[in-house]
C-alpha cells in the first residue's frame, strides 16, 4: 500500500475556464494535486454561469472544479498579476486556456514564468494551437466538432451532420492535457527542468478519429455518415425491438455465423456471398432486413439475452436512468460524495483510472465558492499578513 496519493505534493496554478482546462486540473485534483484556481473577484469564472443551477450554484461548475481552492485575483490589476507571478514561483504546474498571446500580454507567458521557476511545467490549451491559420479564432466544443470532421461523419446516412451529445472536444482535450502534464512531470524527474506542454482542441479531436483517418489517408473510399453502423464492418449496427433499441457487434466471421444461428437464418450463414466482411458490406441491406425483422418480434432484453446465450457481443441502448439503476455505477464507485457550502452533500464523478494500492481522497471533495480560499492561500503560500491581504482587497487586486 502506498502511503501517498499519486500527485500529492504537486501544486498546480489553474488559470483555466469553462471545460477543457478545468477538466484537466480536476483529474489532477482527484489524484491529490493541490489546485489553486484563479477566478475573477465577485463573479468567478464563466463556468459558474452555465446551467443547470441548484440553489444558485452551477452544478456544471461543481462537477468540473471538485477538490480545488478558489482564489480571486483581478488580472487587470498590476498587484493581481504580481500575486499570480509569486504563486507561479512556488508551483510545479501552470495550466491556462486563454487565447494564444493573452498570457504574454499579461506578463505571464511561458518564458517570463520559467525564467523565475525553471522547474515549472507550463501547459497551454487552446482551440487551434499556438500557431497556424486559425490560431486566433475563438473555439468552443461545437465549433471544434464542426471543423474536425466529426460532425460530418456523425448522423444518419441521409441526414444532416450531427454533433455528439456531449462536449467531446473539451473532454478529450482535457484528458490529453492531463496526459501531457503527467508526462512532463515524469520527464522533470530525470532532467530537473520543466517544459511547455501545448494542446489544441482541434488536434485532440482529429487525432481520435482513427476509423475515418484510416479510410481517408490510406484508401480512396469516401468518408461519410453511416448512422449507427460501422463504416467498414457489417453487421455492426443498432436495431429496433418492441420496446427499445439494441446494438449488435458482429465484427468477425465467427460472430456473424452465431448471429445467423440466433435469428434462425442458417441459410445466411451458408451463403457464399456473405462469407466475408467484404461480401456482407456489399449485401448490407439484405442482412439488415433479416436482423431487423427478427429483432422487431422480441422485447429488448429478450433479444439481448438470446444473443448473449451464443456469446454474441450485444447490448441494450440504455438511458442515463437505466445505467444509474443497473448497479454497475455503484459497484465501480463512479459517483462519489462531495460537498459545497450552499448545496451541502453533492454527487461528483471523478477520473476513472484506478491505481491499486494508492489511497483515495481524504473524505468528500469540495466544490469551492468564489474566492473561498483566497486568504488561506495568500497567507500559507505567500506568507502575506492579514494587513497586507486587507490592503490588496481594498485596492481591488483580490
Automatic annotation (TrEMBL):
PANTHER family: SUCCINATE--HYDROXYMETHYLGLUTARATE COA-TRANSFERASE (PTHR48207). One of its GO terms (molecular function) is CoA-transferase activity. The keyword Transferase applies. The keyword Repeat does not apply. It comes from the Bacteria. This is Acyl-CoA transferase. It comes from Bosea vaviloviae. Pfam families: CoA_transf_3 (PF02515). Keywords: Transferase. InterPro entries: CoA-transferase_III_domain, CoA-Trfase_fam_III, CoA-Trfase_III_dom3_sf, CoA-Trfase_III_dom_1_sf.
Amino acid at each position: 500500500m502506498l502511503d501517498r496519493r499519486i500527485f500529492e505534493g504537486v501544486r498546480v496554478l489553474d488559470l483555466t475556464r469553462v471545460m477543457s482546462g478545468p477538466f484537466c486540473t480536476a483529474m489532477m485534483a482527484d489524484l491529490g494535486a493541490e489546485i489553486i484556481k484563479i477566478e475573477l473577484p465577485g463573479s468567478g469564472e464563466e463556468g459558474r454561469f452555465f446551467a443547470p443551477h441548484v440553489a444558485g450554484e452551477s452544478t456544471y461548475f461543481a462537477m468540473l472544479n471538485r477538490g480545488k481552492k478558489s482564489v480571486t485575483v483581478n488580472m487587470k490589476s498590476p498587484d493581481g498579476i504580481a500575486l499570480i507571478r509569486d504563486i507561479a514561483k512556488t508551483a510545479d504546474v501552470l495550466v491556462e486556456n486563454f487565447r494564444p498571446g493573452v498570457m504574454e500580454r499579461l506578463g505571464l507567458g511561458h518564458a517570463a514564468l520559467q525564467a523565475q521557476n525553471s522547474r515549472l511545467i507550463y501547459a497551454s490549451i487552446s482551440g487551434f494551437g499556438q500557431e497556424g491559420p486559425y490560431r486566433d479564432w475563438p473555439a468552443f466544443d461545437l465549433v471544434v466538432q464542426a471543423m474536425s470532421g466529426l460532425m460530418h461523419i456523425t448522423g444518419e446516412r441521409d441526414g444532416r451532420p450531427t454533433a455528439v451529445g456531449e462536449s467531446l472536444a473539451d473532454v478529450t482535450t482535457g484528458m490529453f492535457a492531463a496526459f501531457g502534464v503527467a508526462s512532463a512531470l515524469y520527464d522533470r524527474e530525470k532532467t530537473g527542468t520543466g517544459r511547455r506542454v501545448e494542446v489544441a482542441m482541434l488536434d485532440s479531436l482529429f487525432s481520435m478519429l482513427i476509423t475515418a483517418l484510416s479510410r481517408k489517408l490510406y484508401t480512396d473510399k469516401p468518408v461519410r455518415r453511416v448512422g449507427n453502423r460501422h463504416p467498414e464492418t457489417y453487421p455492426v449496427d443498432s436495431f429496433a425491438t418492441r420496446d427499445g433499441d439494441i446494438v449488435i457487434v458482429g465484427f468477425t466471421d465467427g460472430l456473424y455465423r452465431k448471429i445467423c444461428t440466433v435469428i434462425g437464418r442458417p441459410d445466411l450463414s451458408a451463403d457464399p456471398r456473405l462469407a466475408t466482411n467484404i461480401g456482407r458490406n456489399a449485401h448490407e441491406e439484405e442482412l439488415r432486413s433479416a436482423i431487423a425483422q427478427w429483432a422487431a418480434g422480441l422485447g429488448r432484453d429478450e433479444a439481448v439475452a438470446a444473443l448473449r446465450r451464443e456469446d454474441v457481443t450485444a447490448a441494450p441502448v440504455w438511458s442515463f436512468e437505466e445505467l444509474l439503476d443497473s448497479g454497475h455505477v455503484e459497484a465501480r464507485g463512479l459517483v462519489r460524495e462531495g460537498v459545497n457550502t450552499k448545496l451541502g452533500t453533492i454527487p461528483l464523478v471523478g477520473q476513472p483510472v484506478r491505481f491499486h494500492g494508492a489511497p483515495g481522497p481524504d473524505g468528500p471533495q469540495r466544490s469551492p465558492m468564489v474566492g473561498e480560499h483566497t486568504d488561506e492561500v495568500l497567507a500559507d503560500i505567500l506568507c502575506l499578513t492579514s494587513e497586507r491581504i486587507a490592503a490588496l482587497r481594498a485596492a481591488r487586486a483580490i
